[in-house]
Amino acid sequence: MPTPSIAEMRIAMLIDGDNAQYSLLEPMLEEASRYGAITIRRAYGDWTTPNLAGWRPLMLAHAIQPIQQWRYTTGKNATDSALIIDAMDILYSGTVKGFCIVSSDSDYTRLGTRIRESGLFVMGMGHQRTPEAFINACNVFVYVENLQKTKEAPSKETNPAEKKPPKNNKLVELLQRAIDISEQDDGWVHLGALGQALHRIDPSFDSRTYGHKNLSLLVKSLPEQFVVKGTKKSGSASIYVSTKA
Questions:
Q1: I need a surface site. Which of 19, 33, 159, 203 has the fewest CB within 10 A?
Q2: At residue 167, does pLDDT exceed 70?
Q3: What residues contact 196, with CB distance under 8 A and at least 6 apart?
């Protein structure tokens, strides 16, 4: 499915307040904004309960509409149903071209699948414990643990040369698969195309999971397996990756 460009992408960000961290709201908004303009911002929960009190000042500061959902019975999560109903209303309104669903709950798996079936972009945000089914229902899935790392990172950047290469056979295998499906006739893959292929294979792929802020630094940390070269085209730098012979 072709993804709309960031310039034209309008996103509805729907937050499951019972299943998300209010302390990470700002980095979550920033992360979603990388994919487009967040034109609809809603958070769902029973805002009368003390455990959700921390959300209130942040929702006010970031113009997020709180959607009140009463707990009708113990043990049942009415928030899920309210969010799903609203998502379908927004989908049929045609006012957005993408959704960001903030939750670690597998109950949103079918919602993500349904939105993708309509040709819209789906982004998920949740903990690493999020069920694989919901992750794979999204085009992109971001672990909030990586946003936590970014938030807590010191102002002084670590020199990439000082970082130890991640010893992860699964990572190398994933990168190789992505190169195999997107390489050109000369065996090289543009870094942007490699990133897209990685997300098609694994929506939760994120260089930050492996200790690097971007894909370029991650690939460079694996010099025994991959080769990186840069070229200049029309005054802008382009990076290409290939498997080491």
A1: 159
A2: no
A3: 182
Q: Do 33 and 113 fall into the same domain?
A: yes
Both 125 and 187 in one domain: the answer is: no
Q: DSSP labels for 192-228?
A: HHHHHHHHHH-TT--GGGGT-SSHHHHHHT-TTTEEE
CB 205: neighbour CB atoms within 10 A?
22
Q: Where among 152, 185, 206 does a domain terminate?
A: 152
Q: Is the pLDDT of residue 37 over 50?
A: yes
Q: Looking at the domain assignment, is residue 196 inside a domain?
A: yes
pTM for the full model? 0.78
Task: Identify the domain containing residue 86 by its residue range.
Answer: 10-152
CA dihedral 127, 133, 139, 143 (to 10 degrees): 10
Grade residue 158 by pLDDT with cuts at 50, 70 and 90.
Answer: very low
